[in-house]
Write a structure and sequence with these properties.
With 195 residues, the chain is mainly α. 73% of the residues lie in helices and 0% in strands. Helix 1 crosses helix 2, helix 1 packs across helix 6 and helix 2 packs across helix 3.
Length: 195
Amino acid sequence: MPRDGGPARLRLQQAALDLYAERGFDQVTTAEIAARAGVTERTFYRHFADKREVLFDGEKTLRDALAAGVAGAPEGLAPLPTVLWTLRTVVVPVLEGNRSFSEPRHRVITATPALRERDQAKKAALTEALATALRDRGASESTASLAAHVGMAAFGHASIAWLDHPDRSLDELIREAFEDLHGLTVPLAAVDDPV
């Protein structure tokens, strides 16, 4: 095995995903994942803390990439367009390049309450990373938080549509979600104070 363990890590991820799809997350052990991947259980634990984390690998890398994306967004962009730019330039290429993993991963997570909870924690961490990066860029606390939460909600909406419609690109669906968001908020400018 190469020193970085990259090939073993990928085999472990694929083996876990295959086993979870075949038998369900709760019915699979780390020993079975390791055996399917052709490594020892000890090797499994060198790469992952537990069998959930196989599906959530790279969270810190993604948080860092989101922060770097926000920092590198074109100057003059407002917070929400900055989130859109960051998602399109940082996240879309990664997810579209890993669609064969994303689709079955989503099915396993959806079918497993403990994984749905872990997925929510991951989304919260990514949202906070975006908000922090927006604050670092000069947005107020409130605006940064709102833009990050709204942007991640639109991204989540687009991601589900992407998994349901393999003929559509994630980039196209994210743009549509943000356009829908814009369409929902524009009429608010015409509303007088109801009091």
